[in-house]
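Narrative progress, year one. The postdoctoral researcher (J.K.) led the effort to move from monomer predictions toward full complexes, under supervision of the PI. The following entry was the first complex the group processed end to end, covering 611 residues in total.
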Amino acid sequence: MKSFFPTTVLTFCLLLGAASAYAQNTQQDQGPMTNAEVVKLVKAGFKEKTIVLIIASRVPNFDLTSDRMIQLKRNGVSENIIVAMLARQEGNDIPASDGEWSDDPFFNSKLDPKAEGGKASDGSTNIFGSNTGSKARSSSRTGNGSASGDSQLTGSATVRILKPPTEAGGAGGSAKLEKTKSLTNESIVELVEAGFSEGTIIRRIEQSPVEFDLAANKLEELKKRRVTDKMIAAMRAAMGEDK
Amino acid sequence: MIALLVCAALLFSVASAQRRGQQRTKPQAKPTATPKPKTELETMGAPPPVPTLKKQPEQEVSPGDVVSVDTTEVMFPVTVRDPDGRLVNNLTRNDFRVFEDNAPQPLSDLALRQVPVDVVLMVDASSSVASNLDDFRRAAQGFVARLQEDDRVSLIKFDDRVQLLQDWTKSRFQFQRALNRIEPGVFTRFNDALLLASKDQFGPVTKSRRAIIVLSDGIDKISAATLSTALQALIRSQVTVYIVSNTQISRAAKLAELDTLLGRSDASVRFNQIQIDNLRAGMKALEESEQNLDQLAQATGGRLYVPKSFDALESTYAEVADELRHQYALYFTPLNKARDGSFRRVRIEMTNSSFRPQTRVGYFAPKS
């Protein structure tokens, strides 16, 4: 009994120290999230919705050209995760997908990537960050982003202060011009062949710059390569040919 | 007891290791200091002084004014206004005189042409503009509708990132789709955005006219590039920059708030002192930014527009489109043939001294 107590205390302290070090290191290392990190999480066996949660909480720096998306898929990254990456990269809401995870309260109430950008889903302005696990409401009197908001806060709140990238040690420093490659007939065929669903491909078409060739012979070729009528309709709409 | 001491020692060593790690990473975390741009801009020199002018009837440039292009020639887009500020568009090459480093350039090497323009529309999607993105969308759509068929446009959005939402296109429809892809963000990489646009979107000099129209208050605390670096890149790429600044709109909002706070009781003023100081500092920053933006625009041969409300964006962008339509592309072959990469100051004068030409301050000679 005598030797049991110090051993327990020692183990406890070691665990505590290690946990504290891990937590701090994790926070320090949080730069922009890349494709490689998503693949790592998938291969480490994280659940789909956990990975989406992580994507929603990190600054994105994904490469989502058609080739890279196909590479992600081949590395076992699910379409739901890729769609979340696309949405995050483009600054949109991460869509509630079909299936179990759309019911998760995280997707219904708490997840609002725009809140990070200063806009909460209720239209009120949340200047410095997002709030989670609380009923927090902040409104600006001037509407010009100055910090004069009236605040009502009940319950506990976790406020994530957004630092400029240079301060955060993330993407700051030298910037690059992020280009979204235009989708072409060939990239649509590649997405189909990689096994992406019709819905995902249509969504991609709707949200991307496009340079399709929709001449009659090209349309025939697309159909032969399993591009569906709905996809072709989306391609036509994206080219302004449906009007 | 020994176990506890060991435990404490371990915790201490972990904590010190972390502190060391933090100290090592500190220099990275420190925000990049942006040198005061005003001084740097001044080193580039102010644009040439502009005389006043008088109105002329409108007339197209005659085909006789078009001459063949020499490979060593440089192009200067020039806008000419009359004394009432109206654009003059009936001029011939004999109405212009060009000086490079104060040396007159022979008129025989001067030409006027109407050439298509490549325009990058840039929008600051940070909080100062984010709530008025729809106004920008409307104004941008109106702007492209006024361009000529051969003119090309592209769209860049910047906040803490710089994103090319639409590469060069002549399709107004694709441009409109790109406008719908703008999402609000935070922070403003104004200098970086200008630098990247000039390098990546324009690249080596071509025969086309080049312009950037940017909507921003220009207050930039996170860019790696300075305003001076951005200006040099813009001049190297021979891009004219038109800036639509929301500084006046932001200033008016801050002033109204300040008036309200100062109109309250002394106790209330004391209570709100921090906020009052912040508002004053914000107004000062806007004023300084506006001065820098004005210098930047003038140095590139462009103009600073300061609308009083976001409702006025449409008419402001229409004015820029009008200016681009009435811009002369003025070519001359410099007498100084040295390919030394040096900066050459260029001045344009008008035969009619009441006319006011507007062009960029100079160009960088090619380097072999």
